[in-house]
């Protein structure tokens, strides 16, 4: 039996913009050979008859999901597939609980624009999309539910456990990923260029056999490479 997962070569994506946030189509302009994007500006129900692989649900920010809208959104999710929440403003940690909904992730529009190639690759491989701003919070929530109700303050990498697997630079980067740092913040702290940090992250992901930084953080926690400090 062939267990090899098929990767879709071409994606059909619907961008649902009920609040009419976008003034022009900017996303995926350089990747039209890999992805088709249709923008829906309708303020009516989330009712898309044409087939799609993913539906990007664009909102101004996560405060959109107050009680009334959240109930409506949950109702609209019924029967829908592969919806990703996209926020015009930065994703904030207090809204990580939205990932408990049957969605495929939550990212900011800025992150989408700056990481188009990575986003497309994750979509093609049907991976969860999580904005770097909430990766640390998500890791904390995973650990909290697994271990204790007492909140964690931080994760500390046990370097002895990874010394035979990761180089020093990769260890340093993994620790900062555990701290919830962005590529730019890591570059500043380690005094490297962002492109160098991106290269180190790519090598780190390859060594761990994971697809993105969120999976790297979760992998480190689940394999007890990182100790949670309370």
Automatic annotation (TrEMBL):
Biological process (GO) annotations held by this record are: regulation of DNA-templated transcription
Residue spans crossing the bilayer: none
On whether DNA-binding is a keyword of this UniProt record, the answer is yes
**InterPro entries in alphabetical order:** Sig_transdc_resp-reg_C-effctor, Tscrpt_reg_LuxR_C, WalR-like
What's one GO MF term for it? DNA binding
What's in the keyword line of the UniProt record? DNA-binding, Transcription, Transcription regulation
Residue stretches making up the HTH luxR-type domain: 159-224
* Top-level taxon of origin: Bacteria
Pfam family membership, one: GerE
UniProt key word Ubl conjugation: no
What is the designated name of this protein?
Answer: HTH luxR-type domain-containing protein
Q: Which organism is it from?
A: Salipaludibacillus neizhouensis
């Amino acid at each position: 039996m062939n267990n090899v997962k098929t990767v879709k070569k071409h994606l059909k994506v619907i961008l649902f913009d009920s609040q009419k946030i976008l003034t022009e189509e900017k996303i995926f302009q350089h990747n039209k050979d890999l992805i088709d994007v249709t923008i829906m500006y309708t303020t009516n129900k989330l009712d898309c008859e044409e087939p799609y692989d993913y539906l990007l649900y664009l909102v101004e920010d996560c405060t959109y999901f107050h009680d009334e809208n959240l109930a409506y959104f949950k109702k609209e999710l019924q029967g829908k597939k592969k919806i990703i929440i996209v926020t015009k403003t930065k994703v904030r940690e207090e809204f990580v609980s939205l990932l408990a909904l049957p969605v495929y992730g939550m990212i900011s529009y800025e992150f989408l624009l700056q990481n188009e190639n990575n986003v497309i690759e994750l979509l093609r491989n049907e991976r969860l999309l999580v904005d770097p701003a909430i990766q640390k919070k998500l890791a904390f929530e995973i650990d909290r539910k697994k271990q204790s109700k007492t909140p964690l303050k931080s994760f500390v990498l046990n370097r002895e456990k990874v010394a035979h697997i990761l180089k020093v630079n990769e260890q340093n980067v993994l620790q900062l990923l555990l701290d919830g740092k962005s590529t730019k913040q890591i570059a500043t702290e380690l005094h490297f260029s962002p492109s160098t940090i991106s290269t180190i992250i790519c090598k780190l992901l390859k060594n761990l056999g994971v697809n993105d930084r969120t999976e790297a953080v979760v992998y480190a926690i689940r394999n007890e490479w990182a100790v949670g400090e309370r």
